[in-house]
Specification:
The structure holds two protein chains of two kinds.
Chain A lengths: L18 E10 L2 E11 L4 E5 L6 H8 L7 E6 L2 E2 L4 H6 L1 E4 L11 H11 L6 H10 L15 H13 L5 E5 L7 H16 L3 E5 L3 H7 L2 E6 L2 E7 H8 L2 E7 L7 H4 L2 E5 L2 E6 L3 H12 L4 E7 L3 H9 L3
Parallel strand pairs in A: 3-8, 3-9, 6-7, 7-8
Antiparallel strand pairs in A: 1-2, 1-4, 4-5, 9-10, 11-13, 11-14, 12-13
Helix pairs in contact in A: 3-5, 8-11
Chain B lengths: L2 H14 L2 H23 L11 H32 L3 H4 L5 H30 L7 H25 L3 H17 L12 H7 L3 H14 L6 H25 L6
Helix pairs in contact in B: 1-5, 2-3, 2-5, 3-5, 3-6, 3-7, 3-9, 5-6, 5-10, 6-9, 6-10, 9-10
Classes of the chains: A alpha/beta, B mainly alpha.
């Protein structure tokens, strides 16, 4: 059951969650794109939605945005149903689409003013200027959208999602194909919005991004939510430490130790450890077997490992 | 400013920014029709008594421009936005399907009237035409461009590529426009074609519009008004139903 908080919600009333997804199903012909997905994202969260291509991430986000109508189930944004109370729901949501789309007839400033107007906002130039400044778009304000590079167009998409100051922001792979400088600048700005109270939902293929930014992660596979937990818990539950050891003679490992080796490369072996306590025992076994260690490196758990493991059905 | 007002303004800006293509070009095309037909047929054809052929022709050309450009405005804008993906910017905000419909229709009416006015003003340099009943002229121009604007929405939403839009335009809109009596009176046609012409709503738009200039028409302007208003009501209902269902816009 979702957590209900009263008095602290976006509109001061009782809200169930920033985004509440209940048993959402969606079929495209015989393809089951979403298979009974339920998910509750609380206000102020930085949530990561991960999954391989075709897992249903964009379909789920499009359902949240009202672009896709679910076959069954419902979605609400801060308590407003995206179908029945679509006006309220859409005012509370900003979406950065995955595709690099733009209207070639307008300049950056015109694009942002029009987007403001679609949300019924007049005289919004102060906020538009602030958003442009934060995304390094000020110098391009009067440039036509056609004249912008891909990275700049991506920034405008982010700005368009923010013009109406939505409390919930969904970013569908916002850093796909953009340079490192923009990625860093964008995350700095998005982090600031999150600190200021905005709920952020992110889909990305960069697992290091999700690991460093998201407090909680959901993983989709084949239209089903196969994992949902805090990033730390996922790392603890599904991943462990990797010990990379450089040995003078890796072939001389006794069978019980060789069985624990998960990878061998250039005289280095990798051994998986469940936790730090297993480290001492392993080193003692190596010493007992008379094997000398040339070097070793302890690698912390990472989300990529969790992701690969879950996608492989482990 | 509501979402509707901004969408309407955006649609106006969209054609105004390329006015050479969206207004000047169709005015020139109509002018060429006028000059060529005047040269070829003036003095050889008399449609109504005491009305020279070019004088008869001009209102028809004006209305044809109004209708074709109203259709082109909504259909090309929606199809282009759909195909390039930027329709998303209109689908994400809290804009209802009725606001969407009215904004696109209103912009189509403005574009239709702007081109029609351009054709009329330029045509008046060559052909002296007077307005007997300007309210009928305005009424048919607005209703006709609204009807074609609505058909443009249907075509734009339905078309997945520009090729399909061209099919709608070239195989439905153009034949119905050309066979509506722009260049002739249907009384000059064989009985079978006269009967078929009466089933063409474009005929009533042209005929009613022309009545406002001459006070003469093939059928009563009241009948024409009824047919055009009825056609507009039916097409609007279908378009609104289509938009409300999210057909091809919200999967």
């Amino acid at each position: 059951m979702p957590v209900r908080t009263c008095g602290s919600g976006f509109d001061g009333g009782c809200v169930s969650a920033a985004i509440e997804i209940r048993n959402v199903e969606k079929n495209y012909g015989s393809l089951r794109a979403l298979d009974g997905v339920s998910l509750s994202i609380e206000e102020g969260e930085f949530f990561g939605l991960l999954g391989p291509n075709g897992a249903g991430k964009t379909t789920l986000i499009s359902t949240v945005a009202g672009l896709v109508r679910p076959g069954a189930g419902s979605v609400s944004i801060l308590g407003a149903d995206v179908v029945r109370d679509y006006r309220t729901a859409r005012r509370r949501l900003g979406v950065v689409p995955q595709e690099l789309v733009f209207d070639p007839f307008f300049t950056v400033r015109e694009t942002l003013r029009l987007q403001s107007g679609y949300f019924g906002l007049r005289r919004n130039d102060d906020w538009i200027d602030e958003v442009m400044a934060n995304l390094d778009l000020t110098s391009k304000a009067d440039a036509n959208m056609r004249a912008l590079s891909g990275g700049m167009k991506r920034r405008v998409l982010v700005a368009q999602a923010l013009v109406h100051r939505p409390p919930v922001i969904v970013l569908d792979e916002p850093t796909a194909g953009v340079d490192v400088e923009l990625r860093q600048g964008l995350w700095k700005f998005i982090r600031r919005l999150n600190v200021e109270g905005h709920t952020i939902v992110l889909t990305t293929h960069y697992l290091d991004e999700a690991e460093s930014l998201c407090g909680r992660i959901g993983m989709l596979k084949g239209g089903r939510l196969i994992a949902l937990d805090s990033t730390q818990n996922l790392l603890k539950k599904f991943s462990g430490l990797s010990l990379v050891i450089g040995l003078d003679n890796p072939e001389s490992l006794p069978p019980e130790l060789a069985a624990r080796v998960s990878a061998r490369e250039n005289g280095r072996i990798t051994v998986r450890l469940g936790n730090y306590l297993e480290l001492e025992g392993l080193l003692a076994d190596l010493r007992k077997s008379g094997i000398s260690i040339r070097e070793f490196e302890l690698q912390p758990p990472d989300l990529e490992e969790v992701f690969m493991g879950l996608m492989a059905g482990k | 400013m509501s979402g509707f007002a901004t969408l309407f303004r955006k649609e106006l800006l969209r054609f105004w920014k390329v006015a050479f293509q969206t207004i000047a070009a169709p005015v020139l095309t109509s002018l060429l029709y006028l000059v060529i037909f005047a040269q070829a047929l003036e003095g050889r054809i008399q449609v109504y008594e005491r009305i020279p052929y070019t004088v008869f022709l001009l209102p028809g050309l004006v209305m044809m421009s109004v209708l074709q450009n109203a259709f082109a405005n909504s259909s090309s804008s929606i199809a282009q936005s759909k195909i390039t993906g930027n329709i998303l910017f209109v689908l994400l905000p809290p804009i209802s399907h009725v606001e969407f419909f009215v904004a696109y229709i209103s912009a189509a009416i403005v574009r239709g009237l702007a081109v029609g006015l351009g054709v009329l003003l330029v045509g008046l340099w060559f052909v002296p035409v007077s307005l007997v009943a300007p309210l009928w002229v305005l009424c048919f121009a607005i209703l006709g461009s609204a009807l074609l604007g609505a058909l443009g929405i249907v075509a734009g939403v339905w078309a997945d590529k520009f090729d399909q839009l061209a099919v709608f335009q070239n195989f439905i809109i153009m034949p119905l426009t050309f066979l509506s009596g722009v260049f002739y009176s249907i009384h000059s046609l064989p009985p079978v074609w006269q009967t078929l012409s009466h089933a063409n709503p474009f005929f009533y738009m042209i005929d009613g519009f022309r009545y406002g200039f001459f006070g003469v028409s093939d059928v009563s302007p009241v009948l024409s008004l009824g047919v055009v208003a009825g056609a507009l009501a039916i097409v609007s209902a279908v378009t609104l139903r289509m938009l409300s269902s999210g057909y091809k816009l919200r999967a």
